[in-house]
Amino acid sequence: MAQNILHGIPISGGIAIGKLIYMQHQDMDELSTSYIPYSEISREQNRFAAAVAEAEQSFERALASLPDHLVNEGDVIYMHKMLCRDPKLIDNTNANIELKLLSAESALQRALEEIAREFAEIEDDFFRETVNDLHLVGERIMDKLTGKDPYNLKEGEPVILMARDLSPADTIELSLDNVLAMVTEDGGKTSHAGILARSMGIPAVVGVVGLGLTVRMGDTAIVDGLKGTILLNPTEEEKARYTESAQEYERYKEKISQKCLDVAETLDGHRVEVMANVGWVEEIPKATLAGAEGVGLYRTEYAFLNRTSMPTEAELFKEYSDAVQALEGKSVCFRTLDLGSDKQAPALEHQPEANPALGLRATRYCLRHPQLFRAQLRALLRACAGAHASLMFPLVADLTELRKIAHIVSEVRQELADQKEIFARDISMGVMVELPSTVILADALAEEIDFFSIGTNDLTQYTLGVDRANAQVSHLYQPLHPTVLHSIRRVVDVAHQSGIPVNVCGEMAADPYCLPVLLGMPVDTVSMSSQAIPGIKSLIRQLSLEECLELVRDLLKANTTSRVNRMVREFVYSKTKGEMAFHFSHLDGGYE
Ligand code: PEP
Ligand code: MG
């Protein structure tokens, strides 16, 4: 038996040992083209229609069996259900049956190829995602046409599930009690299957190159969802070692969840407010259960991404009011629309751009589309009346932009007052620090705002000139790069001199090796995805502010990232005795 280790992207923590089962939809390439006589056109079109209806029903069943805490993932399944009616998919397949006399299977296969070819020329993540989603839907329709059962699961036998890719509906439809871990050949850090796996607490590794070629059905494997490895056919000794690590991980999770609702205070008595990043109202209860003390970043653009019509002011008002209510008095910071770049709203106008990340996105997009911006501001200001709420603006480059925003906000306020609407008159307003220009102008900006919130995901991207979504340069995407550290330090110094607070809401806040650095800057609050909160609170309780301040003083003297990374690793290891190895870190994901 071959001993082998495969590597992928760790996407959901935990360790599992078990048999590998390949989940395979009907392979499109295996199908040979088949033709039908003229007399069978309507029979084939009816077979196709029946398969589409069956696929749609399977998405409906997946939606109905979705556990409450996974409501967000329901949006993607709903989108897949709606794609069963995609006119391109349906019309092209029917036309291929009628005009090219292809069987339903061949006609569908050809239609999917045609769609993929049409979109292949467009350099745009949104269209690529849509083609990918249509392919997943097409596979499901094909299974129904060919009568293939993709799951291969025997009742009651726990397995590690492998697949080229897993759609959210696949993931839900499986009997997850029997799935020990998930491993896929495709997919990146933000793949839907990965997000689901994390929400369900199943270890998962995605982007495993050569998975299909290397692995045989029934092989035993150990999946390490923290390191991103798959150990094939392990020895008894390896099994014993990993079983122990798996138990240790479970103990760690149990331990951090016990105190997640308590406030986080460092060993020397410094209280750190830990908040959640959310994109939907439905995430708020989950965030509160994980120990969030409020919402530090509400990504309002998410509600625009999964719909083909523009939300009305009334719908936005309802969403934001629901969020305020769900928080039961805890604070919320709404970020105005960060559309553009990789976040294209189907209902809105987005012109093709050569460099979308440097193009019309976020505040720039809002200033170009003032009607849209005003509608959102009206809804926000009304929903925030009497609430513990604030507003922040993404990707603000300089004072001119800030003043344009402030001017529009004051006009909207005046309009609401004239209309005798109830609204938040004195809401606190801040800007996100995501551009080097914002860092350099921080002192001037600080005079005109109430707080800064550092978006380290974009600040790293724009400071280092490295596309945050491009796997080719991911080794260069280094949040602990000395220039990023000096930028954060400058913003904190300037803000504190002006008497305003600094929050950090980028992924750095959720990273155990970056958190002590942020505390030592010292930033005032941190905000992160809910699942990271229990671990980060636990880490804060093992650190002392004094030592973090000293660490940062030393780090700021280092001039290479590898030196900084080494220093923070040693620091965190010495404070937590390796416990943070159980927590996700970008340092383990391919950084230098
Ligand atoms: C950031 O850039 O760090 C941030 C929080 O915003 P987003 O990830 O939504 O761009
Ligand atoms: Mg950002």
Strand order of the largest sheet: 1-8-7-3-4-5-6-2
Gap between N and C termini: 34 Å
Total strands: the figure is 17
How would you classify the helix and strand content by structural class?
A: alpha/beta
Level of helix content?
A: 40-55%
- What would you give as the CATH superfamily of the largest domain? Phosphoenolpyruvate-binding domains
| Fraction in beta strands | 5-15%
CATH fold-level topology of the largest domain: TIM Barrel
In CATH's first tier, which class of the largest domain applies? Alpha Beta
pLDDT averaged over residues: 87
Query: Uncertain segments of ≥5 residues (pLDDT<50)?
Result: none
Report the C-alpha radius of gyration, rounded. Answer: 25 Å
How many structural domains does the protein architecture include?
A: 3
Hetero compounds: phosphoenolpyruvate, magnesium ion
Just name the CATH architecture of the largest domain.
Alpha-Beta Barrel
* Large-scale geometry: globular
